[in-house]
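Supplementary Methods. Inverse-folding protocol.

Structures were first reduced to a discrete structure-token string of length 335. This string, shown here, constituted the complete conditioning input.
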């Protein structure tokens, strides 16, 4: 009986190993990434259909680490309703679509968050001429937000706690919510502030739209994977950490080759695998951090390109600055 159990157990674990996400991605020679239906700065297609954004860069970094080629990614637009089921049912290998890390999601939905690639908070857009200067002024207002999002819950919690009545208008996607606000169907639009800035840039009356000064929530946004595959969780997590550590160490797309060749800084040498094997425990080649930095860049470069001074959004780094610059962005050390 014990022998039969041992054989059955061995077969089970062999089957589990064969079905690992890393094996599937490498056999397919392509990463399947779930993204938003279009939030500029995070994930949206450009005029040529090429996906751009910091969440897109997250997936490209994983592809660079796992496949040695950041371009080997297929992007699948997912709504707030379908994003988690698409992951748990195996339609995608990773979801990177400005999703908030919460206790219930991380423990009860069969998913695991790999880290935070943007610290956000829920805000409000209103029209300049509306007379609204504070969230306290929104009594009786119709407020748009997105179905099955933390924003929907935060709105209800906030106004219940403050005793202010409001009229929720719940839409199925950020695009529908932004369009409803743009066409005057609601007095305010509430969602993650970064997403609001992104959507405002495409509104017909964007010059007349302002953000109220308050935030009503914490929204740590990050990539997520299926629960139960620790190797894949570690690969995604350390791909993000490699980008953050690279910025902290001053390693960029432009200087990574020279830094790899001649830097005497031990942090740099450990990052670029000059001294010790770096990939075996993850099932990757030792140069996986180098491939990420060379092909995608460090975290600061990605932020600047899609959200910061090089983008149309020009969002200040703020709390997303490195911890060494007074922000919250912090990666575990690579040693």
């Amino acid at each position: 009986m014990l022998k039969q159990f041992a054989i059955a157990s061995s077969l089970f674990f062999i089957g589990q190993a064969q079905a690992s996400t890393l094996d599937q991605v490498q056999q397919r020679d392509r990463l399947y990434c779930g993204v938003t239906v279009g939030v500029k700065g995070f994930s949206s297609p450009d005029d040529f259909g090429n996906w751009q954004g910091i969440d897109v860069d997250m997936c490209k970094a994983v592809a660079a680490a796992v496949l040695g080629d950041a371009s080997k990614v297929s992007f699948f637009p997912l709504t707030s309703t379908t994003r988690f089921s698409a992951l748990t049912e195996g339609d995608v290998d990773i979801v990177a679509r400005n999703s908030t890390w919460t206790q219930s999601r991380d423990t009860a939905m069969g998913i695991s968050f790999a880290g935070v690639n943007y610290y956000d908070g829920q805000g409000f857009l209103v029209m300049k001429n509306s007379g609204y200067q504070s969230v306290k002024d929104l009594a009786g207002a119709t407020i748009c937000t997105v179905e099955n999002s933390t924003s929907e819950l935060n709105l209800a919690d906030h106004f219940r706690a403050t005793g202010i009545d409001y009229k929720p208008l719940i839409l199925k996607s950020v695009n529908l919510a932004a369009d409803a606000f743009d066409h005057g169907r609601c007095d305010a639009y509430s969602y993650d502030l970064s997403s609001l800035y992104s959507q405002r840039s495409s509104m017909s009356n964007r010059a007349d739209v302002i953000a109220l000064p308050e935030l009503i929530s914490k929204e740590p946004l990050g990539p997520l994977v299926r629960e139960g595959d620790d190797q894949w969780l570690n690969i995604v997590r350390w791909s993000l950490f490699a980008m953050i550590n690279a910025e902290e160490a001053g390693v960029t797309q432009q200087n990574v080759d020279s830094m790899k060749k001649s830097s005497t800084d031990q942090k740099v040498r450990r990052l670029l695998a000059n001294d010790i094997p770096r990939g075996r425990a993850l099932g990757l080649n030792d140069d996986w951090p180098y491939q990420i930095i060379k092909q995608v860049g460090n975290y600061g470069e990605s932020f600047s390109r899609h959200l910061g001074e090089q983008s149309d959004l020009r969002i200040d780094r703020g709390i997303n600055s490195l911890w060494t610059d007074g922000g919250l962005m912090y990666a575990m050390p690579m040693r």
